[in-house]
Amino acid sequence: MLKFVSKTPSPLKPGQQPWDQNKQKYGMYILDLNQNYDNALVYQDGNLNSGTLEAFVQHMVPTVDYYPDRTYLFAFLLNSRLFIKPHQLLHDVCQVCIRQQKLGSPEMDRESSKKFSLKLLQLLIEWTETFPYDFRDERMMRHLRDITQKCVAVDQSLRKTVGQLMQALIRKLATLEKYEDVLSRVNSAATERMHSLRTNPAAFQTNIIDVCPSAYVLAQQLTHIELERLANIGPEEFVQSFIKEEKNDTTVRLLDLKRTKNLEAYVEWFNRLSYLVATEVCMHIKKKHRAKLIEYFIDVARECYNIGNFNSLMAIMSGLNLSPVTRLKKTWGKVNMDKFEILEHQMDPTGNFTTYRQSLRAAMQRALGAQDGACDKIVIPFFSLFVKDLYFLNEGCMNKLANGYINFQKFWQTAKQVTEFMTWKQVECPYPRDRQGLNYLLTAPVFSENSLYLASYESEGPETNYERDQYKTLKLQCNAANK
Asked: Which part of the chain is the N-terminal Ras-GEF domain (predicted)?
């Protein structure tokens, strides 16, 4: 059990983290009954600042008269995996419920047991809804089944709630499994098409304009892909990507937590789109076709900007700025550069992408003010920059303070940024699907960097000694590979 140690309290101010009236009344520190100052939560100016892992676990467990604030729950469940595996955290929560809250014990009266069981179920519902991927671990499911059965034993009327909780969780996990299966099949199809291109290049004469002549429609299809991949990234993947392998004599601590498959798949999609753009341009021998494709992709990028799809916008701009494309000076001479320069300005990295960040904030404001139009709610950030911001936040702030307490201020900041991501990923794409366009974007052959350079040199011959040497080397490598 925890009690409060008197300290001069500070009144709550607008924007401060919520905390219950007992903390407001009794002060800034929470300590255990035996005055163990190593098991405390520390508040500063009314905000939860730091504490021990044990105290944070205690703080997330409800009582008959208390339920943890949702912002605290999200921040702690998101970041706690830096220090404890989710299955161990759930085990510890269950132990607090059984030993301290007397769940299922005759020592707790029936009405109190019912109230506590209902609050505990609410906690489990929030956990399974927000971090369902934690429950792909059988140890998590075992703890979940055990503790929910204890709740039902206390109050049979909770059986329906428990059933709904389990069904919703199973649906979420089945959806994830289906998505990962589709992703695997798409990747296999792309690999097969690339192999077919190598064995029979003449079979692939179609370009993206033939498949989807409208730049606006293609931007919509890109938005479908972006939103689908965003939706399947678990918020915990951002934190798990920070976990470093820590080896000792016999074990690897926390290594089984580093599950970031869907986050990595999204980054791979960005790279694929960039190289697809460059491939479409470089694969054509005729200059007028290359120029037409560059202008087409500029139009697609502009439509992505108008939609709020900044990730596809940046991927297209990155593809057009790859060296095998930028060196095609005769081709670029045929392109109207006005629209391209406007987009370049929007995604200019100067000042840590100041202009882009302004556009992102404007899109977020538009989404907040959107009424019924789902189109206005779309915000798809430049994902690599979003991950980079989180990375620097993680690297720039200590996980623990000098006294060994966990730095919860860092937890708040990380949770704030990931909460924005949670809002973005919940938007459903309002545009009609073009299956042919989607299939092309996901499976069309994409050249490697060397193949792009080779195609570029064959389109517009090398001009410098470096380019001539590189072209000669690439030709030799290509001939050797074809023997």
From this structure: 44-174
